[in-house]
TrEMBL record:
The keyword Aminoacyl-tRNA synthetase does not apply. Homotetramer. This is Argininosuccinate synthase. Residues 4-165 form the Arginosuccinate synthase-like N-terminal domain. L-citrulline binds at Y87, S92, N123, R127, S175, E259, Y271. Keywords: Amino-acid biosynthesis, Arginine biosynthesis, ATP-binding, Cytoplasm, Ligase, Nucleotide-binding. Belongs to the argininosuccinate synthase family. Type 1 subfamily. It catalyses: L-citrulline + L-aspartate + ATP = 2-(N(omega)-L-arginino)succinate + AMP + diphosphate + H(+). GO terms for biological process: argininosuccinate metabolic process; L-arginine biosynthetic process; urea cycle. HAMAP family: Arg_succ_synth_type1. Pathway: Amino-acid biosynthesis; L-arginine biosynthesis; L-arginine from L-ornithine and carbamoyl phosphate: step 2/3. CDD domains: ASS (cd01999). L-aspartate binds at T119, N123, D124.
Length: 400
């Protein structure tokens, strides 16, 4: 049997050209795999037809929106995952899901190699190949853009030579990746980090400076999973999809940052993540209400490390698995409702309630009914301060 190459297929110029190119390079058959992670655009049937028209021996299309929301976005939410305290791991989350389906297709169709369209300068090559190594280390990897110096000009010329059924005339000045959790924009004039983004960069969010009525939403969580909006039971996918529209209409979730790439360079990225930013803010506030102080303190360090692992392409790693178990246990009591106001580019928590709340009005109030015994505080403060007091006395004695 001839070699079979499983290609991560998007339907665009680069991966469409990759089908006949890989067939020529390997002498094998190409299995195109397209995964819908909520990126929008063309429907799956049109993408499948194009892959076959470009010469694929088979084209697999997977509607993975619900899977992406429940198994990738929700864990990121429970980890409050913000790389460098700002980036909510948009592309980082979709890559391991795509890898999972590439490996599945390779097993189904007898694939011996997997191909992706990543360059040698980005993080995604690592995410694809580290994931493939973890799930099926026997698969070889072919990366035309990286391994064969495949440029856009070459791709266009090759497409015209082969008469491929794709539009090569229009080109956005930006490189864009998007999915249910958000949208990432780079290149073009954004590569000069002094240039501010202009409105045509954005698609998921409206201009936050434009006057409009505020939108109030109540988000319900069960064990850290968003399960309802305004009392209406929804799947995680439905929650994220609706909040993308509602928070996006208020300009929530715009991020302009210079970030540290895994490959050692800094890059300028503009992100839109309306649902992700609103949900993480709501989830963090509910954790403030329901998670005990020392557990919450330790979880913040776990959250940071979890985000770094996922950004670095180590979704399928022993440490990530162990941190997942910790985070899942820490979510046992993160149930309740959070009320938010979406307006002017901000998602602001205005109310919170939970049957698992650790907040006690009787202990917190300064009014009549206060049950906090303030007489205990004097001795507590003295003992708490004792080590510092002893050390300070030692230092004074030694200095004298």
């Amino acid at each position: 049997m001839s070699e079979r190459v499983v290609l991560a297929y998007s339907g665009g110029l680069d991966t469409s050209v990759a089908i006949p190119f890989l067939a020529e390079q390997t002498g094998g058959e190409i299995i195109a795999v397209a995964v819908d992670v909520g990126q929008g655009g063309e429907d799956l049937d049109a993408i499948r037809d194009r892959a076959l028209a470009c010469g694929a021996a088979e084209a697999v299309v997977v509607d993975a929106k619900e899977e992406f929301a429940a198994d990738f976005c929700v864990p990121a939410l429970q980890a409050n995952a913000l790389y460098m305290d700002r980036y909510p791991l948009l592309s980082s989350l979709s890559r391991p899901l795509i890898v999972k389906h590439l490996v599945s297709a390779a097993e189904e169709f007898g694939g011996t190699s997997v191909s992706h369209g990543c360059t040698g300068k980005g993080n995604d090559q690592v995410r694809f190949e580290a994931g493939l190594s973890a799930l099926n280390p026997d698969l070889k990897v072919i990366a035309p853009a990286r391994d064969f110096a495949w440029t856009r000009d070459k791709a266009i010329a090759f497409a015209e030579e082969k008469g491929l059924p794709i539009d090569v005339s229009a080109k956005s000045p930006y490189s864009i990746d998007q999915n249910l959790w958000g949208r990432a924009v780079e290149t073009g004039f954004l590569e000069d980090i002094w240039n501010g983004p202009i409105e045509d960069v954005y698609d998921y969010t409206a201009d936050p400076a434009q006057p409009r009525e505020a939108d109030e939403v109540v988000i319900t969580f069960a064990a850290g999973v968003p399960v309802a909006l305004d009392g209406r039971p929804l799947t995680p996918y439905q929650v994220i999809d609706e909040l993308n529209r509602r928070a996006g209409a208020q300009g929530v979730g715009r991020i302009d940052m210079v970030e540290d790439r895994l490959v050692g360079i800094k890059s300028r990225e503009v992100y839109e993540a309306p649902a992700a930013i609103a949900l993480i803010a709501a989830h963090m506030e509910l954790e403030n209400v329901t998670v005990e102080r020392d557990l919450a303190r330790f979880k913040r360090s776990v959250d940071q490390r979890w985000g770094e692992l996922v950004y670095d392409g180590l979704w399928f790693s022993p440490l990530k698995d162990a941190l997942d178990a910790f985070i899942a246990d820490a979510q046992k009591h993160v149930s309740g409702e959070v009320r938010m106001t979406l307006h002017g580019g901000r998602a602001v928590v205005t109310g919170r309630r939970s049957d698992a709340s650790l907040y006690s009005y009787d202990l917190a109030t300064y009014d009549t009914g206060d049950t906090f015994d303030q007489s205990l505080a004097k001795g507590f403060v003295e003992l708490w301060s004792l080590p510092s007091k002893i050390a300070a006395k030692r230092d004074r004695d030694q200095a004298g």
